[in-house]
């Protein structure tokens, strides 16, 4: 049995790698293929009467680790300098405004039609309003430099701000002046924690001479992230700060105190660290979507009752996105189509308090929205015509 499990896992991961490599030619997002492969494994195991234990408890663990690694990988690849300020501003606005507009308007409609109180509806809608960086960032690797960076910034910010927004609405029994005060205090605390932890981790990365150094660093990152979550701090801010610091050492060479970190050595280690993160991220992401596909119930996938909700939410995603891209004078193509849902949406959905869960927006809606947005992204990549890049200095 052990040998069969090892062989099966190796074959599945190699197939996932093949999906990733051929995505540029097939134009099919690997997430769709991974979900389908996981679902197929489930059907085969059932038909062959193979007894497989319940694996659902593993999904949130893989998802959390995957989210940390994906945001870290994306932030390590980003460059920060004065010429990028317009890009950062626009990516922030496109990440935030459509998310808020979609969340508040959808919650109002659901509250009116389904009879739920507004806060409950909003808690259930937010998980579907966040762009999944786990799918968006890999899908943008073949874009122009500007569009690729825009998608990385936007999806990373969407993940971070989406988690903050969800926690603020979902974890507060009531929204008042006190809850806003606690929220701003949490932001200040996580910023301080981020800078202190980043300095310590960078120091370790530059000073550790042992052959094994990246695994302890990653474990410390995950540890800091999880401890911060216990205190309801926006932990992804720390991941973004750490990644941006390591990825922009060349821009920070004029800072005097940076000399304590041996910047030349640290820069070399940062490049090696990025390569290591990319490898591990691929593995965790592939395992997550394979497992999620395996756990999909066919009835949930083909649930006609939830399809109307899924279609309306998907339409809202692209309508608000198209309007914001136009207002920001950003290229509609290919950016309009890159608004997938995936890992972060599943994690947020699983985090909805049981008392606040809505039958109308169940697992079927989440699965269908993930598939619909991935299909839109696939169709968008197949449309004729060339990608329209934007200039860095564009206002």
What does this structure look like?
- The chain is an all-alpha fold and 395 residues long.
- It has one domain (2-382): Na+/H+ antiporter like fold, CATH 1.20.1530.
- It is 73% helix and 0% strand.
- The protein has 16 helices and no strands.
- Helix 4 (85-114) crosses helix 7 (145-171).
- The chain is globular, with a radius of gyration of 21 Å.
CATH topology: Na+/H+ antiporter like fold
Radius of gyration, rounded?
21 Å
Determine the fraction of residues in helical runs and give it as a percent range: over 70%
**What does the main sheet amount to?**
none
Q: What structural class do helix, strand and pairing data support? A: mainly alpha
The H-and-E topology, N to C, reads as HHHHHHHHHHHHHHHH
Percent strand equals under 5%
What is the terminal separation in angstroms?
Answer: 60 Å
CATH architecture: Up-down Bundle
């Amino acid at each position: 049995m052990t040998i069969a499990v090892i062989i099966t896992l190796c074959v599945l991961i190699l197939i996932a790698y093949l999906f990733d490599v051929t995505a540029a030619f097939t134009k099919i997002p690997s997430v769709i293929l991974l979900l389908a492969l996981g679902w197929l494994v489930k059907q085969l195991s059932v038909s062959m009467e193979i007894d497989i234990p319940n694996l659902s408890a593993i999904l949130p663990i893989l998802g959390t680790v995957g989210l940390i690694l994906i945001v870290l990988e994306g932030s390590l690849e980003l460059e920060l300098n004065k010429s990028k300020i317009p890009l950062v501003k626009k990516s922030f606005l496109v990440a935030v405004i459509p998310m808020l507009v979609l969340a508040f308007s959808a919650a109002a409609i659901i509250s009116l039609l389904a009879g739920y109180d507004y806060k409950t509806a909003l808690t259930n809608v937010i998980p579907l309003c966040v762009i999944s960086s786990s799918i968006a960032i890999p899908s943008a690797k073949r874009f122009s430099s500007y569009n690729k960076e825009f998608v990385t910034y936007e999806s990373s910010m969407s993940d971070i701000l989406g988690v903050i927004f969800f926690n603020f609405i979902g974890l507060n029994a009531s929204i008042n002046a006190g809850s806003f005060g606690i929220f701003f205090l949490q932001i200040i605390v996580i910023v301080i924690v981020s800078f202190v932890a980043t300095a310590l981790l960078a120091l370790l990365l530059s000073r550790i001479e042992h052959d094994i150094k990246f695994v302890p660093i990653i474990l410390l990152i995950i540890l800091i992230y999880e401890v911060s979550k216990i205190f309801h701090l926006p932990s992804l801010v720390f991941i973004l700060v750490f990644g941006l610091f390591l990825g922009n050492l060349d821009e920070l060479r004029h800072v005097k105190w940076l000399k304590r970190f041996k910047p030349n050595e640290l820069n070399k280690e940062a490049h090696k660290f990025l390569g290591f993160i990319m490898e591990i991220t691929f593995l965790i992401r592939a395992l997550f979507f394979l497992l999620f596909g395996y756990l999909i119930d066919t009835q949930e996938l083909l649930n006609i009752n939830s399809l109307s909700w899924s279609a309306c939410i998907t339409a809202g995603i692209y309508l608000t996105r198209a309007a914001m891209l136009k207002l920001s004078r950003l290229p509609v193509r290919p950016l309009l189509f890159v608004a997938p849902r995936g890992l972060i949406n599943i994690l947020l959905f699983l985090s909805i308090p049981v008392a606040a869960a809505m039958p109308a927006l169940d697992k079927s809606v989440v699965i269908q929205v993930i598939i619909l947005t991935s299909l839109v992204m696939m169709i968008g990549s197949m449309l004729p015509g060339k990608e329209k890049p934007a200039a860095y200095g564009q206002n």
